[in-house]
Batch of 2 targets.
Target 1
Amino acid sequence: MSRTTIAIAGAGDLAKHLVEELLASSSSYDIVVLTTGPRPWFNRPNVTLHIVTYTLPSILSVLNSTRASVLFSFLNHEDPAAFVTANKALLDAARASTHTKRFVPSEYSGDIDRLPDIPRYYVPSRGAFRTILAAQTEVEYTLIGIGWIADHFVPKERRHMRDITSVAVWPIDLEKWEWFRIGTGDERVTFTAARDVARGLVRLVEMTPGSWPPKVYMEGETTSWNRAVETLEKHYGKPLTRLQNDRAARAQSYDVILKVIEENSHDETSIALLEAYFDEASVSEGTACPADLVARQKEELFQGIKFRSIDELLKDSERLDKI
C-alpha cells in the first residue's frame, strides 16, 4: 500500500482531532506536525514532530524531506502581522516544495461569502492572507467555514478544545451555569463539532487534486443562542442563570454593540472591542454558514459523514471519553 504524508502546522486542539481522524480513517497516512516546541500528546505511531521556526527555509526543509502532499495550517496569533507572516511562510514553502501543492489555511470562520470581514479583527489577519492566497496559482487551497466550535457546550474534561477564557466572547459558562444574551438571541448561529470538522478535512485529503471548491462549509447545526441554551437546559434538567451585568449590557442590541466598537476603535488591544467584534458576528449572523452551500456540499462532498447537532454532541459526551 502506498503511503501519503500529511503535514500539520500548529499542534493545537483542532490538530489533535485531525491526527486522530487521519489515523482512524486509514493506516496509510504518515503525519508530520510542525511546531515550535515539544508536544508530548503527538508522540504516537505514524506521527512525527518537527521543530521549526516558521520561516521559509525551516518549513521547506520539512516539506521536502517528508514529501508531504497536503499542508494544513492551524496557526493563529493575536497579532495580525504575525499571523500573516507565519501563514505566508507556510504558503511560500508549499509553492517552493517538490510535492506539497494542496494547502488548507487557518480560516475556520463563518459565512466567508456574505460577510468575509466579520468579525472585524479578521480583516488584517485572515482577510489580508486571503488576498495573498488568491494572488498565486501554484498551490490549490480552500477556505473552511464552520461557525463556532460546538465542543464548548460540553464539559472540559470530555473535550480536547480548551476553554475560551481570555475574553468573554463565548456567552455560556458551564461551570458557573450562567449565560448572557447577545442581541435578541434569536439570530442564526452555526455550531460544528471539532471532530466532525476533522472528518470533513480527511475527506478533502481523499478528494482528487484540483477538485476543491474555493470555499468549503461544514455545519453541525444552525440554530440560535436562545435555542442552544434551551438544548443545554433540557439535557441537564436545570435552567441557566441569565446574567444582567456590564458584559451583558454591552451585548444587548446591535446598536449598543456598534456604539461599543465606535467608542473603543482607537485601541485595538481593548478587551471590550474584541468582545464587541464577536458580538457583532453573532447579531449580523456572520457566524451562520450559508444554508444553500451547506446543503449542496453535504451532498456533493461529505456523504457518509455525520455532522452532529448540539443535542447529539451532549449525548455523545455522556458515553465517550472525548467527543
Target 2
Amino acid sequence: FLGTDSAPHARSAKEAACGCAGCYTALHALELYAEAFEAAGALDKLESFASFHGADFYGLPRNTDKVTLEKAAWHVPDSLPFGDDVLVPLRAGETLQWKLRE
C-alpha cells in the first residue's frame, strides 16, 4: 500500500558536503504513482494501492473522501519557498503527465 517518505529538506541542507537524504514528493506523490502504475500497465490497481490496502491491512475504515487524477501535462516547479531557503521537489523542472484535479 501507498506510503511516502517525503523529505522536505532545504536546498542548502541537501546540496552540502554531508547533505540530507531523501526527496520531496508530497507536492505530487499521487501524480508520480500514476505515472509509475501507467508505465507498468497497472493503472487499474492504483486506486486500491492508494486508497484501500492500507486501511484494510490495519483494520481501519476506508476513507470516504475522494480525489481525481486527470491525464493532463503540468510542469513541476523548479523550486518552492521554504523559510529563508528553497525546496527542490523530485523531478523539478520536468513535465508530469498526470495531475490532481482541484
